[in-house]
Request: fold
Amino acid sequence: KIMELDLSKVTQNLKSLPENKTPVCLVLGGSFNPIHTQHIESFDLARKHLRTHNIEVVGGFLGVSSSEHVVVKVGRSEAVKLSHRVETCNIACQKSDILVTVPWGWANPTEVAQEIKKIIKKKLEVDLQIFQMCGSDLVLNYGRWERAFPMVCVARPPYIEDVKEEILNHPSEYKKNFYLISENTKDVSSTKVRKLLFKAKWEELEKSELISKEVLLYLKTKYEENTLKEDDFSWM
Reply:
């Protein structure tokens, strides 16, 4: 059974939609292992960029990936439990007027986006356009993948020029509805956070400002309880 989505932020933003603006929802699928400040900042950057195209973001969804996907990607020793990844995303979304956690644990972000579109249409009776978000790694690693939705790529240094070159080599039809954001991005990754997290470098993490204080406190508590990682129980 699919868990309910909180659409209250989308509803409120639709009510206050500026004139002549096209409303869209952004969907970012990822491990969020763990969620960091650049994940949140990427939505703010996308929102500002899309406004220059008369597009208004009324909702931003964090599609938290499956346990299996994360374990295959980083190994059990550095895989945060799905329930904790969902809760840290919830914490990170609290101060945002657009962000919502998708707690289903689906590995395919396109399927997440398709399901969100269907739910919004059913619950709110509006056929909102969905834009998928991605990082530079998806563009560089998967090339000309078939896209079901318009794409917003938030590229971080040092990959910005590589992404620009990759897109230049694509046919014109591929470039349609592709938005590249490369200004004011930061080189922040979950890998950097995990290196400090699983060594219990709490002071370094706090000073780095790679994750919010609220998320850090939650992760520290679960680490000290020895319940943080997926390898604390058997699911495979």
Q: What stands out?
A: Residues 80 and 162 are 30 Å apart (CA to CA). DSSP finds eleven helices and six strands in the chain. The beta strands are 22-30, 55-64, 99-102, 129-135, 151-154, 178-181.
